Amino acid sequence: MKDKKYEILKGDNKPYYCNTVYRIKALKDFGDVKAGDIGGYIQSEEHLSHTGNCWVYDDAVVYDHARVKNNAKIFNNAEVGGYARVTGDAQVHNDAQIKGLAEINEKAVVRDYAIVEGIVEGGAIVADNAKVLDTTYVDSNARVCGMATIKDYTHITGYARIDGQAIVCGESVIDKNTVVDGKTYIEDGLLNKSQDYVTIHPVGEFNASITAFMNRHGEVMVSENKGDRFFGTFARFERVVQGRYEWDNYYLDEYKDLIEYIMKFFHLDD
């Protein structure tokens, strides 16, 4: 390519995992980059396009089979590896890690200590210590933050926000203005508003966190301690509780109060 916008500084390199990455230096003005500016690290010219205003800043690293194109920007100590693609006007900041088959595009932002393996696009933001794993999809103006984790085939869209220590997995779809936070656990849920789920904590002798939510088939599901102690329909949960505390009226009464609350919350007693 004749019209290169940067050069690799072969003398300024460092080992990175099983690779060697090299500093880059701008050869001309483009975007907010000036000729002579020193950038971050890339493994080769295949990793950062010479077209558009894309750039790797500071001490950020792009390596392995990853690619940065168009007007995408990688800042600070962020790393982009695996087979990841960062394109469009997307930005990756701070100590964020983009890995696996991740795709960050359009005007999406990933920052702080977030880890992304899935797809983040539109005006979506992934921040703090959040994890977007597997083949998950975050788009529109959705936000995943706090210590939240989404995984499997989950889709977060609209203006939805996943926060706190929430875990959303399976084939869940969280849409519109729904806020999922706290110690909530949603698996195969379909939430179009915050009133489609409720989390109660602590409950019982193990201070359990219990989430009741609507699934994709219109059923009320219950998860107890992230599904480790119980996961199933509300009707089955009632039967399990009755058998579990048959000889312990103290905790049986506590769970009966919980069951009554869930019934009223979802209007199951109508």
Describe what you observe in this structure:
It is a single chain. This protein has 270 residues and is mainly beta. The chain has a domain at 196-270. Helices cover 10% and strands 36% of the residues. The protein is built from two helices and 31 strands. The strands form four sheets. The chain has an eleven-stranded mixed sheet, with no helix packed on it. Strands 4-7-10-13-16-19-22-25 form an eight-stranded parallel sheet, with no helix packed on it. It has an eight-stranded parallel sheet with strand order 6-9-12-15-18-21-24-27, with no helix packed on it. β1 and β2 form a beta hairpin. The longest helix has 17 residues, at 249-265. The protein is elongated. The relative contact order is 0.06.
Comma- or semicolon-separated keywords:
single chain; 270 residues; mainly beta; eleven-stranded mixed sheet; eight-stranded parallel sheet; 2 helices; 31 strands; 36% strand
Radius of gyration: 23 Å
- How helix-rich are the residues, as a percent range? 10-25%
Roughly how many Å apart are the termini?
71 Å
Structural category is mainly beta
Average pLDDT reading: 96
* Major sheet description: 11 strands, mixed
The strand count comes to 31
What form results from the Cα inertia axes?
A: elongated
What proportion of the residues form beta strands (DSSP E)? 35-45%
How would you write the strand order of the largest sheet? 1-2-3-5-8-11-14-17-20-23-26
How many helical elements? Answer: 2
Low-confidence stretches: none
